[in-house]
Amino acid sequence: MKATNIVWHDSKVTKEDRQKLNGHKSVVLWFTGLSGAGKSTLSVEVEKELHQRGIRTYILDGDNIRHGLNKDLVFSAEDRKENIRRIGEVAKLMVDAGIVTLTAFISPYREDREMVRQLLGEKEFIEIYVKCSLEECERRDPKGLYKKARAGEIKGFTGIDDPYEEPENPELVVETDKQTLEESVKQVITYLEENGYLK
């Protein structure tokens, strides 16, 4: 049931004021890809590089968010959609706060990622497809999830018995099975520099 009798309360400090104070634009870096592709690893290293440059950042990581904000959700298609909707709303608030927000979520459905893009302003959503072959993700299997999925212990696992819909027009494709972590970080930072997000 949707809440009624609510009114948005404006602040006297705008997003642009916060960006000016911070000395940089705010944006969402949306890392999407299969489990084991390297989304969390890459987002952590990109954040470290941005922090060293004096950029205000925060990571919203899939597993971390499910420990708190989204701990009431399971992995059904309906709950996955709600998971991404909530993250999109949080990311929007963080962009309004003037922060570069990095999100690391499988976010397997194009429609859900597009929903988040529509929440944000022009050029405030950068979809980064962390591309890695299923074979390599299974070989890495950092959490042992593919092994469990193959054994039938996990149902609806993305890439095994649930689809992953590859981005059709992402701002950036980072192929983590073809380059080093350092090269992947440099690719993201270079994109941000060349497109005016970093000075």
What is this structure, in a nutshell?
This protein has helices at residues 15-22, 39-52, 62-65, 77-96, 110-119, 134-140, 145-150, 181-194; strands at 28-32, 57-61, 100-104, 125-131, 172-175. The chain has 199 residues and is α/β, with parallel strands linked by helices.
Task: Describe the structure in your own words.
The protein is globular, with a radius of gyration of 17 Å. Strands 2-3-1-4-5 form a five-stranded parallel β-sheet, with helices on both faces. The protein has 199 residues and is an alpha/beta fold. It has helices at residues 15-22, 39-52, 62-65, 77-96, 110-119, 134-140, 145-150, 181-194; strands spanning 28-32, 57-61, 100-104, 125-131, 172-175. The protein is built from eight helices and five strands, in the order H-E-H-E-H-H-E-H-E-H-H-E-H. The model has no long low-confidence stretch (mean pLDDT 91).
The global form is globular
- Give the structural class: alpha/beta
- Strand fraction equals 5-15%
What is Rg? 17 Å
**How are helices and strands ordered from N to C?**
HEHEHHEHEHHEH
Number of strands: 5
User: Number of helix segments?
Assistant: 8
Distance between the termini: 45 Å
**Low-confidence segments:** none
Helix percent reads 40-55%
Keywords:
199 residues; alpha/beta; 5-stranded parallel sheet; 8 helices; 5 strands; 42% helix; globular
